[in-house]
Amino acid sequence: MSATTLTAAAPSVRASSQGSPVVTVRALQVAYDTELVLDRVDLDLHPGEMVALLGASGSGKSTLMKSLTGFAPITSGTADVAGRDATSASGRELRRLRADVGQVFQQFNLIPRLSVFSNVLTGALHRAGPLNVIGGFTSEHRRLAMHYLDRVGIAHKAKEPARSLSGGQQQRVAIARALMQQPRVILADEPVASLDPKLATSVLELLHDIAKGDGIPVLVSLHVLPLALAHSDRIIGLRHGEILLTAPTAQLDSEKLSVLYEFEEVDDDDHLA
Ligand SMILES: Nc1ncnc2c1ncn2[C@@H]1O[C@H](COP(=O)(O)OP(=O)(O)OP(=O)(O)O)[C@@H](O)[C@H]1O
Ligand SMILES: [Mg+2]
């Protein structure tokens, strides 16, 4: 399979993003046992940009995100995340790398019985480590947690148990928790797949605003093309583990993106061979 790059360079995005890339991936290859699930993947994430990652189920979106935090079996290539090598980091270096990466998931992954405020505070554990907060979170931690709750628009819910919030509100808590890490990059794997269209839009607007306002690059995987087209600066499309297209969002539309979801006929002879 040959990767087709619709638009190799992205001048408008580069002009609007500042500084050198926070994430640089080159010729990345990931394999589970003998199954190659990512191949020849190149990726740059610049401060200030929101990049949508698209592709059919099984195309490798989650695996690409996992490879940036040392959770995927990388077989070759390079992956630099905020100055750390994700292909070889272990121990303390890997913990530091993971502290630099804020993650947002489809199912929010909050602790339901804990208050919204406490859930956000747990974001500080990534950087401090549990042993360093054994005497409790500092007043600075608490100030920051309220600051980020305010940032995502739900400071008024701080004392409520996380389980009492709507899905959209819970995802805001998860985003505040990610910000509490003071991350260098945010990876959001299908963050709106469990939300209705209105909440999905508001959560993506928030993530885009964080990318722009806070300068933190956001990589977000999505399955809904109109949402990707409305809320990203650039789109990267994966098919069968390879990057099939990468282009500024302004140059794309649903029709151009449909190539990501077209499948070749499987030749029975090849398949059985
Ligand atoms: N832990 C694992 N062990 C073996 N194979 C895996 C593992 N995780 C993922 N894969 C395989 O890697 C490929 C890519 O999976 P991945 O979860 O990255 O896809 P995806 O694009 O995120 O799909 P979806 O849109 O359904 O979330 C699939 O073929 C999947 O079966
Ligand atoms: Mg996935």
Question: Which features does this protein show?
Answer:
four-stranded antiparallel sheet; 273 residues; single chain; six-stranded mixed sheet; 2 domains; binds magnesium ion; translocase; binds adenosine-5'-triphosphate; ATP-binding; nucleotide-binding; disordered N terminus; 34% helix; ABC_transporter-like_ATP-bd; ATP-binding cassette domain-containing protein; alpha/beta; Rossmann fold
Number of strands: 10
Biggest beta-sheet profile:
6 strands, mixed
Task: Compute the average pLDDT.
Answer: 89
Spatial ordering of strands, largest sheet: 6-7-8-3-9-10
The CATH superfamily of the largest domain is P-loop containing nucleotide triphosphate hydrolases
Bound compounds, each kind once, are: adenosine-5'-triphosphate, magnesium ion
Question: What shape does the CA trace take?
Answer: globular
Class from helix and strand fractions: alpha/beta
What are the segments in which pLDDT stays under 50 over at least 5 consecutive residues? 1-16
InterPro entries: AAA+_ATPase, ABC_transporter-like_ATP-bd, ABC_transporter-like_CS, ABC_transpr_PhnC, MetN_ABC_transporter-like, P-loop_NTPase
Keywords: ATP-binding, Cell membrane, Membrane, Nucleotide-binding, Translocase, Transport
GO molecular function, one term: ATP binding
Protein name: ATP-binding cassette domain-containing protein
